[in-house]
Design brief:
This protein is of the alpha/beta class. The chain has ten helices and 13 strands. The protein has helices at residues 36-47, 73-80, 84-89, 121-134, 227-232, 237-245, 288-307, 313-342, 345-357, 359-369, and strands at residues 29-32, 52-56, 69-70, 93-102, 105-118, 138-141, 154-156, 170-180, 188-193, 196-202, 207-217, 247-256, 272-273. The strands form two sheets. The protein has an eight-stranded mixed sheet. The chain has a five-stranded parallel sheet with strand order 6-2-1-7-13. A hairpin with a 4-residue loop joins strand 10 and strand 11 (207-217). Helix 2 crosses helix 7 (288-307). The radius of gyration is 20 Å and the shape is globular.
Length: 370
């Protein structure tokens, strides 16, 4: 159960920077969804003295299907909010290298242009919830927002939007687990199989996060019931052997039924969306955790203006949508394009292999998707 107070002291950067004495005159903001984007936005607004209520259907702490790997601009967002030092104090681990495998064959190993941060969502979500509460935010857990999420003063940070499905169309589902005694060739490993991605990254205390996205058609045979068998059924022999020799932490198992990977920002004809509610990027080149932090930070200033009464809701909402489109439009386009190439045999051999093997093209790919 979520504690009402946190044992972690707040850094000066987490103290409210706005005049809290006038909060009663400010319009409240309701955030639907207490994941990374929702809690980050709540913290940013509370730092500026805006009344905030977050509604989260689940509870804290809990595991989520997530790569648990943060790189690119999201780290700067965390630093500006005063959260990066809290993550480091809670055991976040830096990552300096990445290795790429295709069907069990090591394709390339590179040093990351900038260090990434690896941290368990089990730790991170609780950490953010504690910080939000300490700043005076109101957090409802185990309850769903009972009204429409596209009304004035409400921000939809509620996660992935299910796609329209067809019997012969591909759809993705996700699995995540923590393992021990699993040696890695780099801080981050990305494994591409015929119909799956599997990412492995080092966390603290000898733990490795293993997160996979698997694609199938509705007409395909059912997946294995055993959790480990589902993870390893489509993996290469090399990866199967390594996973089979590791120690699996059963209390970390989690799944998500549908992951709607997108190549563009979801249209903002109504409502205010951030994080995965805005769009889900392909994992091989994408960085969903970073997009959650960045989208929350970009939405903060217009929402503060709305709360102070200096900006109408529709103007604030459209400003947020435009900011997010400018920041993420190109990123989602390139990650979607590479995602298509990954699962198209001729394209994968002709384009992706040279792209990942050469340092300069790989750094360019990193730049346009981070």
């Amino acid at each position: 159960m979520l504690p009402k107070t946190s044992s972690l002291p707040l850094t000066p950067a987490l103290s409210p920077t706005g005049p809290t004495g006038g909060e009663g005159a400010r319009r409240p903001i309701t955030i639907v969804g207490g994941g990374l984007a929702g809690l980050t936005l709540g913290i940013g607004l509370r730092q500026r003295g805006v009344p905030v209520i977050v509604w989260e259907a689940g509870g804290y702490p809990r595991h989520r299907v997530c790569g648990e790997f943060i790189s690119g601009r999201g780290i700067a967002s965390l630093r500006q909010l005063g959260l990066l030092s809290l993550l480091e104090a809670a055991g976040a681990r830096p990552a300096h290298s990445a290795a790429f495998y295709i069907r069990g064959r090591l394709l390339a190993r590179h040093r990351l242009p900038e260090p990434a941060v690896c941290i368990s969502r089990f730790v991170l979500d609780q950490l953010q919830a504690d910080a939000f509460l300490r700043l005076g935010g109101t957090l409802h857990t185990g309850e769903r927002w009972p009204r429409a999420a596209d009304t004035e003063g409400v921000v939809n940070a509620g996660g992935r939007q299910p796609p329209k499905s067809a019997r012969h169309a591909w759809h993705w589902y996700g699995l995540k687990a923590h393992l021990r005694d699993l040696p890695l060739s780099a801080d981050l490993e990305m494994h591409l199989e015929a119909n799956s991605y599997v990412g492995l990254c080092r966390l603290g205390a000898g733990t490795v996060n293993v997160c996979g996205l698997f694609r199938r058609r509705a007409s395909d045979p059912g997946v294995p019931k055993d959790f480990k068998a589902r993870f390893t059924s489509g993996a290469s022999c090399e990866l199967q052997e390594r996973l089979g020799q590791a120690t699996w932490e059963e209390d970390s198992y989690c799944t998500v039924a549908t992951v709607p990977i997108q190549g563009s920002v979801r249209p903002a004809s109504s409502g205010c969306r951030i994080g995965d509610a805005l769009g889900v990027t392909a994992p091989f080149t994408g960085n969903g955790m970073s997009m959650a932090f960045e989208s929350a930070q970009l939405a903060t200033a217009p929402l503060v203006e709305f709360a102070e009464g200096s900006c109408p809701w529709e103007v604030a909402r459209r400003c947020i949508a435009e900011r997010l489109r400018e920041r993420f439009g190109r990123r989602l386009f390139w990650s979607g394009l590479v995602n298509t190439a990954l699962f198209h045999g001729p394209l994968r051999g002709a384009l992706l292999t040279p792209l990942l093997r050469s340092v300069l093209p790989w750094r360019l790919l990193f730049l346009v998707t981070r």
